[in-house]
Amino acid sequence: STVVLVFEAPTEEFEFKVRPGEKVKVGQKLGDV
Amino acid sequence: LINAWTETPTKWYPLPLAVGALLLVALQYRKKVRRAQKEVMLDENGVEVVKLKGPWHVHVLGALPLRNMSRLWGYVNSLELPVWFRPYGFKLYAYAFGCNLDEIEPRDLRAYPSLGDFFYRKLRDGVRPVDDAILVSPADGTILHFGAIKDLRVEQVKGITYSLDAFIGVDKPGSINSSNNPLGVVVEHNPDMTVVDDREFANVNGIEYSLGQLIGGGNGGSSGTNTPVSGTLTPMTEEPAGAGGASDGDSGGSIPRLPRVGAAAKKFEDQGDVSVVEPERSLQETLARDVSVAKEMMGTLNRTPSMTPTNDNDNEDGNGGSSTPAGRPAHERKHSSPIRNLRPGHSLFFTVVYLAPGDYHRFHSPTAWVVEKRRHFVGELFSVSPWMAKRLEGLFVLNERVALLGRWRYGFFGMVPVGATNVGSIHVNFDKNLRTNVRGRRPPPGRYSEAVYSGASVLLGGQPLERAQEMGGFRLG
After folding, report:
1. How far off is chain B from A13, nearest CA to CA, in Å?
2. Residues 6 or more apart from B239 whose CB is under 8 A from it?
3. Cα dist. B454→B185, B238, B379, B401 in Å?
4. How many Cβ atoms from other residues are within 10 Å of residue B319's Cβ?
5. Quick check: B15 contacting A, CB < 8 Å?
6. Whose CB has fewer CB within 10 Å in chain B, the N or C terminal residue?
7. ipTM, 2 dp
8. What is the pLDDT of residue B390?
9. Which residue of A lies nearest to B400 if distances are taken between CA atoms?
């Protein structure tokens, strides 16, 4: 199963804080402004 | 060999004309096939038609009855296991798929009657600390991919993209959405026909209340979100489909009905109850939650420009003007959609989290946001493993999925749980009517049924969700 997030965010300020292939847990930081 | 290579004289001679002609035909055919594969097929509404594309083994998989297999898998795993066997069986499963049994609740493995129940296990409080970031992971899993969305195409893997319109659906002109359905009446939407349910209820955390109770009594059909809330909410008795709740007159007020649409109008199909995990809240608690979400959304109580229904301003419609960039393909300009009216300086981003079989299979809210609607796309149930994602084009558009659409601090926000062969059942805690992976004739790809949650919160006009709040999950089969 998969969860896909699609969202609008400020182009310059928004930054993903993960890497492809990284294991994540619920509540872990995905991205921030 | 060396002698043959060095001493054999090279003798040139012309190919027969027929061989050359055949070669040209073969090259032309290959070019045509490749062009056809790259060609984007559009339906009569201008939405991309997704077809099975990929190597031969993908087509073999596509020929399998995946949905029936999925349901059979779910049935087998719902069978109750002997109590003595459960610890051994679940420990073996945990060992094979890497589950951490120290963090589950309850910890006694004998408490899980079946593998299906164990698969949908809960976590102990506090084992998942929530980061302060604006966006957190909605699930345990692996980040498959992320990035910015360009030209409304999402990258599945490098070099393979799919249409965002096909993935989350487009608003059709005349469709009933949260803006013209302020009472939150559930609407089944199909691009070809609009089916309206006139039962009076609003869904607050999975508990249904009559709209009259929720927004206060009174006559005259005062609708909208400014109606003062009064009284204590009590769950409304579930009425069988066809009972016509609006006509009973005991639900606390006169609620304007949505119009039925021609012969296509029919009663809402009762999809049964879905287990609700969230605790029951009082009105005060509900309002406190709403205010908390609103605060996190930094005062974006008003509908953001991205969710405001807009005129298509399509020259074809004769409305004149255009809010969409010039040069966009006609099929993209044909629809009004929140993803087309972004705020200045904003872009669309995406991220894909893959849940492996051993992972905790409930999903949580990735941010503080308001879910305004859900769109249920009935589709295939291919595996969504990274192996498959690399081979099957448009995998996420082909599969069954539930698109939860709304708004957050920065505008549009969408979360889409996508089903797979082993986990075809998608549950959303606050949507008791949603049923996925059901038997029956499947509508063509691209069609969806829609429910609007605008009545879930009088204050926010949708279902408010706090960061990391449990939203639902995937179940076997």
Report:
1. 9
2. B199, B245
3. 8, 20, 26, 21
4. 11
5. no
6. N
7. 0.96
8. 83
9. A1
3-state secondary structure B307-328: HCCCCCCCHHHCCCCCCCCCCC
Answer for the pair B170, B337: CB distance below 8 angstroms, yes or no: yes
Shortest distance, CA A18 to any CA of chain B (angstroms)? 8
Residue-level pLDDT at B163: 85
Q: Map residue B1 onto helix, strand or coil.
A: coil
pLDDT at B229: 28
The residue whose two tokens read 């099929």 is B331
Assess contact for B435 and B188: CB atoms under 8 A.
no
Instruction: For residues A8 and B134, give the distance between their C-alpha atoms in angstroms, rounded to a whole number.
Output: 13
Interface contacts (A, B; CB < 8 Å): 180
- Partner residue opposite A3 with nearest CB, options B130, B139, B146: B139
Give the CA radius of gyration of chain B: 26
Look at A5 and B396 and tell me if their CB atoms are within 8 Å.
no
Residue of B nearest to A25 (CA): B140
Q: A16 contacts in B (CB within 8 Å)?
A: 146-147, 349, 351
Report residues of chain B scoring pLDDT below 50. 173-278, 299-335
CB contact, 8 Å: B142 with chain A? yes
* 3-state secondary structure at position B153: strand
Q: How confident is the model at residue A33 (pLDDT cuts 50, 70, 90)?
A: confident
Cα separation, B10 vs B77, in Å, equals 69
Q: Distance of CA B411 to CAs A22, B151, B168, B296, Å?
A: 27, 18, 16, 13
Give CA separation, B176 vs B71, B223, B259, B437, in Å.
32, 16, 10, 25
